[in-house]
Amino acid sequence: MADNRDKTTDQMKTWKENRGSRPDVLTTGAGHPIGDKLNLQTAGPRGPLLVQDVVFTDEMAHFDRERIPERVVHAKGAGAFGYFEVTHDITRYCKAKVFEHIGKTTPIAVRFSTVAGESGSADTVRDPRGFAVKFYTDEGNWDLTGNNTPVFFIRDALLFPSFVHTQKRNPQTHMKDPDMVWDFWSLRPECLHQVSFLFSDRGLPDGYRHMNGYGSHTFKLVNADGDRVYCKFHYKTDQGIKNLSVEEAEHLASTNPDYAIGDLFNAIANGNYPSWTFYIQVMTFEQAEKFQFNPFDLTKVWSHKEFPLIPVGRMVLNRNPVNYFAEVEQLAFDPSNMPPGIEPSPDKMLQGRLFSYPDTHRHRLGANYLQIPVNCPFRTRVANYQRDGPMCMFDNQGGAPNYYPNSFSAPETQPQFVESKFQVSPDVARYNSADEDNVTQVRTFFTKVLNEDERQRLCQNMAGSLKEAQLFIQKRMVSSGSTNSVKLLEKQTEKKKQRKFDQNYQYVYFLILLLGLLLFSCCSSTWGSASLLSCGGAVPALDGFAVIH
Length: 549
What we know:
alpha+beta; ten-stranded antiparallel beta sheet; two-stranded antiparallel ribbon; 14 helices; 31% helix; globular
């Protein structure tokens, strides 16, 4: 058995071999050598502990404070380090120095994660996977915080806390609650695109090495002449896409819950360095103005045919973390960390994350979290007017003035780095975006991306989960998908003055039909007095519409 041990299992043995046979002198946190680490200092062999036993109090006081708040989402994850290398010139689009010439390399830190589970949860649950990259650039850190899917459940950041609550635990039972999950999804039809991704084979990636990554949001690129375009970022795995079956995922969850972390660590330790090819999609401002849907909508993708992938570079991971807490648990990603040449778009979810992410890091890690070595922008000099705060780790910028403006040669602004101008003219209001075509791209994913077997598994997976929710939620989920496709169809037919169904939307009906059939075959439930399965060629009317098989 010992011959079959992998690198993660042999970590202690490897550390000893690399360290050498001579141990360090054991000390307190203050560096004082310790003579006895096995026995308390007491008044006699059976007497009480003495307060003067600083070996004990130093150890116990630190132990009492070892844990920090875990991430609200993405709590369970793996990290690694490596480099990004530019392979294609995109300076016509972006002036950021990270892309300044072919062959340039930039150090990176990457964290992969599940989303909803706690730190001790299994790696192989059906869940989106986080895919966050920190580029240590010459102009400060650039954090690209994404997932393994190009879309998300919602498009308005105001819904984010409620959405996350539904993915967590019931406030009374402290158990995962399918009613919470499906109630929210059925009430917010924009979720359907991401839900379709989630319940497809892509919802169970085989570890982290065999999945793609996406910046998901729309960003803005600015070149040296001040020309601007919108863009999306993509990472395509060089290892090839590989997913787990439901049976494999469930088996691993019970026998090897840290499967994905171990797979990544062992691959790097064995010299099998995973890599991804980095691409962008580009859309001009003129194209965005005339686009058929909101190009900043996080629940939708840009067509690769209309906006082809442009190769940029390659990302390679070649170093495991030296210490998980220091380099992964404390690793903090912030989408507002953007070097000159990369700027935010009006994407509502991105705008919300620009505030939320650094705010949660200050809560979780402290006001000076950017001084933690793994978060420090070590390839540039930090010079500002921020001072003090808990855990100030460096020289606090010495005797430099702590106010601006001043007359004493302290840091000055550089006008060439002012953000690009953009015009905003609409009325300020709370705009409802819930009904912005939530089915067309679902239909494309279902009919053009998935094959027949994958479509069948998607419906089976979705029905298997939905059947655990209340019956009225099941009915709403099925009928809402049908109703939304009908609403969109009515708009199209009104424009075209047609009364027949557009064939493109029959695929959405087929998805809803198949989901309904599978759902009710799983739970043997009925709607009203008629069983769905006994309806023969037609499904009962859903909100006034009949879906024909």
